């Protein structure tokens, strides 16, 4: 997606104050009914410039294939557009692993995310993971409690002064899910995630049918 140049430039300039690297724009159909929202790109995504790359990407592609959905049919983005990293030292060796973005970093990129939602106007927003869900609906929401449910309500967008979030006038269909990478760390989620994808498939079919009537 092409973002307003001044908006992106201002945000990238401010991002230099944080441990962030690279930039990955949202990708997919800009008139998509379904928008997948993740936390932030990882090292692989920054390198390939493809959302949901690597092992997590393979899991996503498998799930999409099962419900007869393709990457080109949807829009994929994240609440932070750069890779958040930490610096870790072990002896003389220094590494830069991925980390969870801070609330300040998520707010920094909020104008870009708000622009994407306003541009795409998705029928269904799939919040993949806690960072995405909390950015959309607030801190009292969590994936473990709301995954696999359809929530019809307003979402949060950044205020004009960029200091606070405010609720949108529009109502959106939010579908919280575990991020595809979650199964790499907890194999017990396999059945749960499979059931959630089946529910999402039913929701998409319902929305598509209503749209064509």
UniProtKB/TrEMBL annotation:
Transmembrane segments: none
Entry keyword Hydrolase: yes
Gene Ontology molecular function: 4 iron, 4 sulfur cluster binding; deaminated base DNA N-glycosylase activity; metal ion binding
All copies of domain Uracil-DNA glycosylase-like, residue ranges: 25-198
Gene3D superfamilies named in the record: Uracil-DNA glycosylase-like domain (3.40.470.10)
Key words of the record: 4Fe-4S, DNA damage, DNA repair, Hydrolase, Iron, Iron-sulfur, Metal-binding
Name of the protein described by the UniProt record: DNA polymerase
Organism this protein belongs to: Tetragenococcus osmophilus
């Amino acid at each position: 997606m092409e973002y307003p140049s001044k908006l992106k430039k201002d945000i990238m300039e401010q991002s230099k104050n944080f441990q962030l690297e690279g930039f990955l724009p949202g990708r997919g159909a800009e008139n998509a009914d379904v928008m997948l929202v993740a936390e932030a790109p990882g090292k692989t995504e920054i390198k390939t410039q493809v959302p949901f790359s690597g092992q997590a990407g393979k899991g996503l592609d498998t799930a999409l294939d099962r419900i007869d959905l393709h990457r080109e049919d949807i829009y994929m983005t994240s609440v932070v557009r750069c890779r958040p990293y930490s610096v870790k030292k072990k002896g003389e060796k220094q590494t830069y692993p991925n980390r969870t973005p801070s609330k300040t970093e998520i707010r920094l990129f909020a104008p870009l995310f708000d622009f994407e939602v306003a541009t795409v106007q998705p029928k269904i927003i799939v919040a993949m993971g806690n960072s995405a869900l909390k950015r959309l609906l607030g801190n009292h929401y969590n994936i473990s409690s709301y995954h696999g449910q359809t929530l019809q309500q307003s979402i949060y967008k950044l205020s004009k002064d960029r200091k606070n979030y405010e609720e949108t006038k529009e109502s959106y269909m939010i579908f919280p899910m575990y991020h595809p990478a979650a199964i790499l760390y907890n194999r017990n989620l396999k059945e749960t995630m499979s059931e959630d994808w089946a529910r999402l498939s039913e929701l998409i079919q319902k929305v598509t049918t209503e749209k064509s009537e």
